[in-house]
Amino acid sequence: MAPMPAPRTTACLGVLGVASAALLAVATSPASAHGAVFNPVSRIAACYAEGPETPKSQVCKDLVADSGTQPLYDWNEVNIANADGHHQQLIPDGKLCSANREKYRALDWARTDWPATNVAAGSFDFKFRVTAPHSGTMTLYITKDGFDPTHPLKWSDLDPTPVATYQTGRTATDGYYNFTGTLPARTGRHVVYKIWQRNDSPEAFYSCSDVVYGQRVAAAKAAPAAPTEQHIAADATKSTVSHHGHGGGKPSADSFMASSVAQPVAAVSLAGVVTSGFLLLRRRRNQ
Description:
alpha+beta, Coagulation Factor XIII, Chain A, domain 1, 2 domains, 6-stranded mixed β-sheet, 9 strands, about 20% strand, globular
């Protein structure tokens, strides 16, 4: 049996290499569910709303001085791509607000001057700005009575009973998830911690929102504002967060299907290319 000519062998191996690399690229492409809590406004959303280039509060000025403006332009990204529900194993105490990501390390600062939303015990309307909706579960916790905001946030600081649990869908009305929860009785400053675990991907998102019970924030520490739609649209080109062509104000079912189906279809197609390449290589060797 004559050996396969080198050019044919090289060509087949080249096809397999390209196909394998493309398949790997599809399999490891970044996920695309993003957003942030706008009520009570999260730390990163509050600082972004102040303006990354001209922050007003001292804590947001310090954040930019420490980490630059990009974390704020990427306000909807604080995530772990492969969390798969293992939140406490992946995020150590003191790193909850940043999800243990160096890029967002300033969010973990134990300070009492983070912009805070005034709240009271009872029913509370939560508002989450979603830039790419996905099926999953959003769970929000609040710190226990007696929490000391001058110490880094630990898992044991969170009351194990959620203040809200919401099943997120593949669409979001006007780009928001709106749902109601119940805040327990507390006094002073606390943190509301959000975990959004997708069920169509191992990716999860996290955030910290500062709240104050039983008092009005002084004029010098006015209640934080959430980013406006005009602000978000104007800064879209400065974000490094990928949405795979969907997301935004009014995500549609069609846009979701186009983006979510494309990757599996591409993976199947590339797998077929790889299989065909192996069969071709085997057939050539047997000639």
